[in-house]
Amino acid sequence: MKNEIKVFCPATIANISCGFDVLGVALDNVGDEMVVKKTSKKGITITKIEGQNLPLQTHKNVAGVAGLALLSASDYEGGFEIEIYKKIKAGSGIGSSAASSTGAVCAMNKLLGEPFSNLELVQFAMKGEELASGVQHADNVAPAIYGGFTLVRSYSPLDIIKINTPKKLYATVIHPQIEIKTSDSRKILKTTISLADGIKQWGNVGGLIAGLYTEDYDLISRSLEDHIIEPIRSILIPAFDNVKSASLNAGALGCGISGSGPSIYALSKGKETAEKVAQAMQNIYNKVGIPYDIHVSTVNTEGIKTIS
Ligand code: ADP
C-alpha cells in the first residue's frame, strides 16, 4: 500500500439554480492539488500551503478538521502530513473549502485501503464545511467526492444521489474579484417561502433531474430557474442581470449564482457555446471594470482524482 498520494481536488458549483442547498456539480479543469503522506506521528499536520494565505493550524484549516473527523472514526494508529496547492480562491463560490476538505479525506481513505464509503467521506468533509461557513452543508462536498451532479435528497438521515451527466454539457464560470461572505449572503435570505414559489421550485428540480437523466437539453434549459434565492442574492453581485441575459443570448441553457456567489455559472450544450458564453460574460465585466477569472470546463464525473 502507498504511503503518499497526490490528488486533484475539483472546484464545484453548488446551489444550481432551483437546487438551492441540494444540487451541485464538479468541474474538470479547475481545482487544487494536495499531497498527503502517512506519518507515525498521530494527528494531522499541514506542512505547506501554496497559492493562498490560509491557516496552517490543523483546527483552523478545513483539511485538518475534516481529516481529524476521519481519524477519530478510524482505528489507524498513525497520522498524516498534508501539502495544499491552492488554485481556487477562498470565498469564490466555487467550493474552495470543499476542495480541501474532500481532498484530505479522500486521499487519507485511499492511503488506508478505502475503509470508508463515499457517504462517510461526505460526513467527514462536512465538518470542514462547518468550519468554513458555520453550516454542515453537503452540496459542494458531495459532487467533489462522488463526481458529476449530485442531489442531497435528505440531510437527516444523509442521503446523496449521483445524477447522470449529459455528455455534451459544459460549464462556464466567471469569478468577479469581490468578496461576499457566505454568512452575509445567508443572512439576507428569508426563512419562509410561499406555496406558489415552492410549487415552481420543486417542479423545476424534478424537471432538471429528468432532463439530466434523459439528456434532454431543452428540458434542462427550461428547468434552470430559481424564483426564490436568486432574486434576493443577485443584488450582491455587480451586473448579474446583464451577465445572465448576455449568457442566455449567447446560447447558454441557463445561468445562475454559483454557491453563495460572487461567481456566476452557466451551463451550455457543447464547448463552442460555452466559450461564446465566456466571451459574453467577459464583455460585461470588462465594462464594469472589476477584475475576474473565467473558466470553461467539462463536468468531472469522477470526483477527487489520483494524480500520482
Ligand atoms: P467558497 O465560497 O469558494 O466555497 P468558502 O466560503 O466555502 O469558499 O470557504 C472559504 C473559507 O474557508 C475562508 O474563510 C477560508 O479562510 C476558510 N478555509 C479554511 N481552510 C481552508 C482551505 N484549506 N481552503 C479554503 N478555505 C479554507
Automatic annotation (TrEMBL):
Family matches, as InterPro entries: GHMP_kinase_C_dom, GHMP_kinase_C_sf, GHMP_kinase_N_dom, Homoserine_kinase, Ribosomal_Su5_D2-typ_SF, Ribsml_uS5_D2-typ_fold_subgr
Broadest EC class assigned to this enzyme: transferase
Location of the GHMP kinase N-terminal domain: 72-148
Keywords, in A-Z order: Amino-acid biosynthesis, ATP-binding, Cytoplasm, Kinase, Nucleotide-binding, Threonine biosynthesis, Transferase
Primary residence: cytoplasm
NCBIfam families tied to this protein: PRK01212.1-4, thrB
Protein name listed in UniProt: Homoserine kinase
Annotated source species: Cellulophaga lytica (strain ATCC 23178 / DSM 7489 / JCM 8516 / NBRC 14961 / NCIMB 1423 / VKM B-1433 / Cy l20)
